[in-house]
Design brief:
There is one protein chain. By secondary structure, the protein is mainly α. It folds into two domains: 186 residues, Up-down Bundle (Growth Hormone, Chain: A); 196 residues, MFS general substrate transporter like domains (Growth Hormone, Chain: A), CATH 1.20.1250. It contains 14 helices and two strands, in the order E-H-H-H-H-H-H-H-H-E-H-H-H-H-H-H. Strands 1-2 form a two-stranded antiparallel ribbon. The radius of gyration is 21 Å and the shape is globular. The two termini are 19 Å apart. It is a multi-pass membrane protein.
C-alpha cells in the first residue's frame, strides 16, 4: 500500500522543524566555535581543544541507530511519534547542559558534548523524517530553508552570544541562557499533533540494509559527496589562509561569525527560492556553476600570487553563501530520493555521508596545503568543482532510468 498522510500547514511544520534545527545549530556553535574559544581562554592546551573535533564522529555514525529510531517513530495503525522522540532528545540535551553548568573541567565538558551530540543527532533523525512526510515535494525547498536557516541562526547563539554571556555573567549563566533558548525553540514542536497515516502501514520494518541496496540511494550518496568535496576543502582552508595573510584574530572572528552567518542566511534564502522556482535539480546545477566561478577565481589569485586581503575576504564570504545555498538545494533533491517507508533512515545516511565528506575533505585540504601550498589545494578544489556538474548530470540520468524501469 501507499502511505497517504494528511499534511499540516506548511507554516506550522516549518516553524516546528526550524526550532529543532535551531537547537542543533546552538549545540553545533557551542561545540565547534564557542567551547574551543572558552577553553583556550581558560588555559586549555591545543591538543585538549582538538579533542572537541571528535564530537563530529557522532554525526558521521548516527546512521547506525537511525533504523532503530525510525522503527520507534513509525507506530502501528498509522501513528507517528516524531514529536515525542524529538522532545525526549531535547530534554536529554537540557540535562547535559544542566550538568555542564556545574563543571568546567575538560573531561566533563567533552563527555557532555558527546552526549549532547548523540541526543541532538537522534532528534535530527526524527525531525528529518517528520519534515519529509509532512511537506509536499513542491515545498521541500521551504523545509530546507527551515532546516539550514535554523542551524545557521543557532550558530549565532551557541558560537557567539554564549561567549558574551559567559564573559559578563559567568559559565553557569551561559549554560542557563542556552538551556532557556533551547526550551523555547522546542515549544513549537511540542504543540504539533502529528496526523495519522491513512490506509497503510510500511511494507517492511525500516532497515539500514534496505537503504544501501537501493540504486537511487547509492546515486544520491555519490551526488552529495561530489557536490560537497570542493566547498569543504575551501571551507577548511579559508581561516588559516586569512591568518597567514596577517588578518587580526578579532577581525577574523567577525568575518567567520557575523559575516559567515549573515552570508549563510542569505544563501539559505536564495537556495530555497531557487529550489522552489527552478526545481531542486536545476537549482543544484546553478549553485554548482557559481561554486566553480568563486573557487576558480580564488585559485587563480593564489597561483598568480595576487594577494589582496579585501578580495579574499569578499570571496570567503561569497563562498559561505554559496555553500549554504548548496546545502538547501542538495537537501531538497535528496529528500525526493528517499523511501517513503523509512525517510529517517535514508536521509540520515545522506547526512552521515555529508559529515564524513566534510571531515575527510577538510583533512585532505590541509594536508595538500601543507606540502603543496594554498595554491595547490585551491587548484585541486577548482578542478573538482569543474567536474561536479558532469557528475551530477550523469547521476541524474541514472536516477531517471531507475525510476522508469
Amino acid at each position: 500500500m501507499v502511505n497517504v498522510i494528511k499534511k499540516k500547514p506548511v507554516r506550522q511544520i516549518a516553524l516546528a522543524a526550524g526550532g529543532v534545527y535551531a537547537t542543533q545549530g546552538i549545540i553545533g556553535g557551542l561545540t565547534y566555535i564557542g567551547m574551543p574559544a572558552y577553553l583556550r581562554m581558560h588555559g586549555a592546551s591545543l591538543d585538549q581543544i582538538g579533542l572537541v573535533s571528535l564530537v563530529m564522529l557522532v554525526w558521521v555514525l548516527k546512521f547506525f541507530w537511525s533504523s532503530w529510531i525510525e522503527r520507534l517513530r513509525i507506530g502501528p495503525n498509522g501513528r507517528r511519534f516524531s514529536s515525542p522522540i524529538i522532545i525526549i532528545a531535547e530534554c536529554g540535551v537540557l540535562l547535559c547542559l544542566a550538568i555542564l553548568g556545574f563543571y568546567e573541567n575538560v573531561s566533563t565538558i567533552l563527555l557532555c558534548l558527546v552526549f549532547m551530540a548523540i541526543f541532538s543527532a537522534t532528534a535530527d533523525i526524527a525531525c528529518d523524517a517528520f519534515l519529509i512526510e509532512q511537506l509536499k515535494t513542491s515545498n521541500y525547498g521551504l523545509g530546507n530553508i527551515a532546516q539550514v536557516g535554523g542551524s545557521y541562526s543557532g550558530l549565532i547563539f551557541g558560537g557567539g552570544i554564549f561567549l558574551w554571556v559567559c564573559d559578563g555573567s559567568g559559565w553557569r549563566a551561559g549554560c542557563i541562557f542556552l538551556g532557556i533558548l533551547i526550551a523555547v525553540c522546542s515549544i513549537p514542536m511540542m504543540l504539533v499533533d502529528e496526523p495519522l497515516v491513512e490506509n497503510s502501514q510500511p511494507l517492511q520494518k525500516p532497515r539500514l540494509l534496505k537503504a544501501v541496496v537501493r540504486k537511487n540511494m547509492l546515486l544520491g550518496l555519490a551526488m552529495v559527496i561530489a557536490y560537497e568535496i570542493a566547498g569543504r576543502i575551501v571551507q577548511s582552508l579559508v581561516g588559516p589562509l586569512l591568518v597567514d595573510l596577517d588578518i587580526p584574530l578579532a577581525k577574523l572572528g567577525m568575518i567567520n561569525g557575523v559575516g559567515g552567518v549573515v552570508s549563510g542566511l542569505i544563501g539559505v534564502l536564495a537556495g530555497g527560492a531557487l529550489a522552489q522556482k527552478l526545481g531542486s535539480k536545476s537549482a543544484m546545477r546553478l549553485v554548482a556553476l557559481l561554486q566553480i566561478v568563486v573557487i576558480t577565481v580564488f585559485a587563480s589569485f593564489l597561483i598568480s600570487q595576487f594577494y589582496r586581503l579585501p578580495l579574499f575576504i569578499g570571496l570567503s564570504i561569497g563562498e559561505s553563501a554559496i555553500m549554504a545555498a548548496g546545502f538547501v538545494t542538495c537537501y531538497s533533491r535528496l529528500m525526493e530520493l528517499v523511501s517513503k517507508d523509512q525517510p529517517g533512515v535514508d536521509f540520515t545516511l545522506f547526512q552521515s555521508a555529508s559529515a564524513l565528506t566534510a571531515a575527510l575533505a577538510g583533512a585532505a585540504g590541509n594536508f595538500i596545503a601543507q606540502y603543496y601550498g594554498y595554491s595547490g589545494a585551491f587548484a585541486l578544489a577548482a578542478l573538482i568543482a569543474i567536474a561536479t556538474p558532469m557528475i551530477l548530470k550523469s547521476s541524474e540520468t541514472h536516477v531517471e532510468r531507475n525510476l522508469q524501469s
